[in-house]
């Protein structure tokens, strides 16, 4: 989409860093303009008009003025605040950070407007916020993994979770290798490929297709943890870089 001198868009903040004495660089994931780097002038001053709004976990309506290297953020209105329920709970906070960091890396790989990715980020943040009102045991990693699996499928990197990724032999299979494309049979299994429970791959398939389990097995926490490690390894293999927030989640 061609940039206009001044434009408005919906956005979420994925990263910030200080610039000069009072300014801040804001990295925005926007719905119609992809990844945008903008400067918010004077926001580190106490009397800044909209500095407090330019934070992670906020859905924004922003106005920007196009520049050669950096756009200038001239206005920012809060549309929805997701921080309540995220910043108070460590697991929710690290999960939300992983969503934002992964989205930034995926947006760079996609390069350009991607409303599907943007909508998926907003939905994931909304679901993490709503966990504070959920009953029973909570698994924020499931929200992260569903986001990652569906985002990778949108980019064309969807893992094979039933048929063997190498020979297409029908599953279920008990091995997984990111370099081969997901599940692998005993014949195609490369040395060192981790052994996985078939129900773990089934859980990942359900997340990918936004489906629910009919019944929750007794070993569900183990399946959730294993699915998260496989999803993380698959993402980082295809991005060819690590995601720091995903490492923090495992601490």
From TrEMBL:
A cellular component term (GO) from this record? bacterial nucleoid
A GO BP entry: DNA recombination
Which InterPro entries does the record match to this protein? ARFGAP/RecO (IPR037278), DNA_rep/recomb_RecO_N (IPR022572), NA-bd_OB-fold (IPR012340), RecO (IPR003717), RecO_C (IPR042242)
Show where the DNA replication/recombination mediator RecO N-terminal domain sits. 6-81
Database matches in Pfam families = RecO_C, RecO_N
Q: What domain of life does the UniProt record list for this protein's source? A: Bacteria
Q: Which UniProt keywords apply?
A: DNA damage, DNA recombination, DNA repair
**Function noted in UniProt:** Involved in DNA repair and RecF pathway recombination.
- Family membership noted in the UniProt record: Belongs to the RecO family.
NCBIfam families in the record, alphabetically?
A: reco
Query: This protein is called what?
Result: DNA repair protein RecO
Organism name? Corynebacterium spheniscorum
Gene name of this polypeptide: recO
